[in-house]
Design brief:
By secondary structure, the protein is an alpha/beta fold. It has 17 helices and 7 strands. It is globular.
Length: about 500
């Protein structure tokens, strides 16, 4: 069985190496973010207050069974500061429940107030969100298309802060940073906010400033209509239609602009089942887009090698959960193989590569934390707790997300499952009676429970393996045990 041992060792090393490469790119983006903040660049833009004409804008609101948030969504959109005669609002309503009539009533009320707002209904959900956006685009009057999901509430001056950047004719998309209406609702929302803040602060700013590909995040952004059409329009063959169209547009020489300074608040999911559905869609869609776009990226004669490498890492980012799960699962047998072959201790000490990867993430995310949360030593100690809590829970989701990634890479199709909205913005808010709460328990929870006990065994092994035990992986196994246990407990709590 020596060949099996060497096979496992090779797989373990490969996963560690890929994680190291990914973490190094994150560290590079953090360094670039630091440089950009010190030396911000100016951009060409219109000045409406100095006589530049307002272009016509269409706002698209793709919704599906959003009973609890439609009223606040339309109140927010109609409060945007922009000339009414230069604005139309499309409610792209694929709903199948009583929210249809509520939306219709609200639309009629706003029409009576002089808003060019319409509820557009399709006979089916072909293409899901991408299909709804494409159908709306056919009749959209706007030169620019702003898109908001149902849980987003833009500030009144949002259009005035984004549309001016389209003065540069090569700009195809302006994307804004997501904010969080209910960040402090629970530990789950705090960790989601932390992860999203890292994406929008480090990754989007870092890649955009280096001239690499970024992605429209599906909402809270504006497209130039010509850009959408030139790139081949919305397509529903992946679960992340936003990432797909973003890459096709940038391959066609359109430029994207990310505005970190413009925050668009949104509601974070509050139950584990809601988080699971969102994470599954994002991670599977990322893998699907890797399969769809990677050849086109590397075949492009226009892109620099560095941009191709960053695009590859970007498209493979969700696949890192496979590497995390591989390293985690193999770390327990590595303890026993190390004890059996003391002469190969140098190899098993490669686990230190995971520490190096963690260090790159740790330092990169600290850059974000100082910008979005708190600075100084007091902030640093709070950051340590937040970072390792995030790291622990992220590892606990590795089974669920790895399954999504594998389905994406192997071409297994699945429906677009919306993330339910609860209209929760305060800690006292209740979600248990929400009709959209899923009572199903993910099949993955069985494996997550088994793995919790598996890593408990890994902690036990630290006492007994070899002659004097081996404590090198004990903290890692403790985090894995806590992470998988937390996911299991929260999954069942979400059925309350």
């Amino acid at each position: 069985m020596i060949w099996m041992a060497y096979f496992l060792m090779g797989l373990y090393f490969l996963a560690l190496l890929l994680l190291l490469v990914f973490s190094m790119t994150q560290g590079l983006l953090a360094w670039q973010y630091y440089r950009v903040k010190k030396n911000p660049k100016s951009a060409t833009r219109w000045h409406f207050d100095k006589g530049d004409p307002y272009p016509f804008v269409t706002i698209q609101l793709p919704v599906y069974n959003e009973l609890y948030v439609m009223e606040r969504l339309l109140a927010s959109i109609t409060a945007l500061t922009y000339p009414k005669e230069k604005l139309e609002i499309q409610v792209l309503d694929d709903s199948t429940d009583e929210s249809v009539e509520l939306t219709a009533q609200l639309v009629r009320e706003y029409q009576q107030q002089g808003f060019a707002i319409n509820q557009l209904r399709r006979g089916n959900r072909t293409g899901f969100k991408a299909g709804a956006l494409k159908a709306g685009l056919k009749v959209a009057k706007g030169e620019f298309i702003a898109i908001f999901d149902a849980d987003f509430l833009p500030q009144n001056d949002w259009l005035l802060n984004t549309i001016p950047y389209f003065k540069a004719p090569q700009i195809g998309v302006v994307q804004t940073r997501w904010g969080h209406l209910n960040k402090d609702f629970s530990l789950l929302t705090k960790i989601q906010a932390f992860a999203l803040d890292a994406h929008f602060t480090l990754e989007q700013t870092g890649r955009n400033s280096l001239g690499h590909f970024i992605n429209f995040n599906g909402t809270a952004g504006v497209w130039r209509k010509n850009c959408i059409e030139d790139a081949g329009n919305w397509q529903g063959d992946t679960l992340t239609e936003d990432l797909d169209l973003s890459y096709r547009a940038q391959l066609n020489n359109w430029q994207f602009m990310f505005l970190e300074s413009v925050e668009t608040p949104a509601e974070l999911p509050v139950t584990m089942n809601a988080i699971r559905s969102q994470q599954f869609r994002w991670n599977k869609g990322g893998a699907e887009n890797f399969q769809k776009m990677i050849r086109k990226v590397w075949q492009s004669d226009r892109l620099h090698l560095s941009s191709k490498i960053h695009a590859t890492v970007h498209l493979l980012s969700s696949s890192m959960f496979l590497c995390v799960l591989t390293v985690a699962f193999l770390s327990v047998p590595m303890l026993y193989l190390k004890a059996q072959w003391p002469g190969l201790a140098w190899f098993f000490n490669l686990a230190s590569l995971f520490l190096i990867s963690t260090f790159f993430f740790f330092m990169g995310y600290w850059q974000m934390y100082q910008e979005r949360y708190s600075k100084g030593w007091k902030g640093f100690w709070a950051y340590i707790m937040r970072f390792f809590t995030f790291y622990t829970i992220a590892m606990g989701l590795s089974v669920h997300n790895s399954k999504a990634v594998l389905e994406g890479h192997f071409g297994k199709k699945s429906a677009f499952i919306r993330t339910p909205k609860f209209n929760i913005t305060q800690q006292k808010s209740r979600w248990q009676n929400n009709k959209y709460v899923s009572m199903k328990v993910s099949k993955n929870v069985l494996w997550e429970g088994i793995l919790a006990f598996y890593f408990l065994f890994g902690m036990y092994s630290a006492f007994h393996v070899g002659k004097q035990g081996d404590w090198g992986l004990f903290p890692f196994h403790l985090m894995l045990f806590l992470g998988f246990s937390f996911i299991v407990v929260q999954t069942f709590r979400g059925r309350a």
